[in-house]
Amino acid sequence: MRIFFFIAALFATSSSHADWHYDKQAIMGTEVHLQFWVDDDSRAPVISHAVMDEFRRIDAALSPYKEDSELSRVNREAGKGAVKISQELADIIQKSLYYSDKTGGAFDITFATLGSLYDFRKGQKADQKITDELLPAVNFRHVELDSKQQTLVFRDPRTKIDLGGIAKGYSVDRAVSILQSFGVQNASVSAGGDARLLGDKRGKPWLIGIRHPRDRSKNAAVIPLENTAISTSGDYERFFIDDDDHRVHHIFNPATGQPTETDTGDTGSDQDKLISVSIIGPQGFDTDPLSTSVFVLGKQRGLALIEQLHNFEAIVIDANHRMFFSSGLQQ
Ligand code: ADP
Ligand code: MG
Fold this sequence. Notes:
Blueprint: H1 2-14, E1 19-27, E2 30-38, H2 44-62, H3 70-77, E3 83-84, H4 87-102, H5 112-115, H6 128-134, E4 143-146, E5 151-154, H7 167-181, E6 187-191, E7 194-198, E8 206-211, E9 219-225, E10 229-234, E11 239-241, E12 247-249, E13 252-253, E14 258-259, E15 274-281, H8 284-297, H9 299-308, E16 313-318, E17 323-325
Antiparallel strand pairs: 1-2, 2-6, 3-5, 4-5, 6-7, 7-10, 8-9, 10-15, 11-12, 13-14, 15-16, 16-17
Helix pairs in contact: 2-7, 4-8, 7-8, 8-9
């Protein structure tokens, strides 16, 4: 009798049941978080693996830190002549150029011409001389993409590109497509500041925290969301404070070739400076470049851009730590 119960209990634990599944891995220089609901939890490891593999695949192709990535190859060769590129890279560059156009160059993947000389962990930046010298090579118009031939050429041989302002948003979208292909209907995927939510949290909304830009232990806001993407750009993720007490961070103003001014001073224009930008919209492929763009554009021009677009909302925090919302969030 006792043996029978033991066997029954074994069957009960090995048979599948529905549950939430969690995974967290360090990829793309950040933490990838995954949470999803599966009706048959024995399938969870396979699903989770497929999603994390996709992040790793994209990282291997687009990382500027991996010498054998497609991006690194392009940065070595496209200044010398047209290079053949993958359809995926062509699509991401095309989207980037679309946002360069829409933002008057605030979003510009050629920021990397100077950005690649910065090392935030080592506290290293480009000096004024090299900045002045290379600034003309920072210009999205140097990037010539032939979508039909699938080729890329940089018109200035010094130009370099980096897709750090769009790749994570693209990746969370890809992750959601993979989850959907497995029949998953409720999930949350995030890579650093870019998150995509599939469905709701089974009867309640997902609660997404926007971090306080000057206090890591606090949220500045918590927002209920479902079936959407949200991307946050801030000057507090990757930065160091230089000898002049300047915050040297990772979001560049392509017009100056330097990190976007965010420090609080005593001038009126500080009201326009932003230190945190969150954009809500259908896909990470758009919310990610838009959060970077609005950050560079500043409060007035940034919010005006979001008001122009359908399906997008913004939550911004200015240099005086005041929070503002686009009109669709104000009720
Ligand atoms: P995070 O990487 O923390 O999610 P963002 O989405 O704002 O933050 O992306 C910042 C990244 O975008 C930088 O690390 C850099 O790779 C890239 N980037 C910085 N400035 C620009 C810019 N003006 N246009 C396009 N990409 C940029
Ligand atoms: Mg972004």
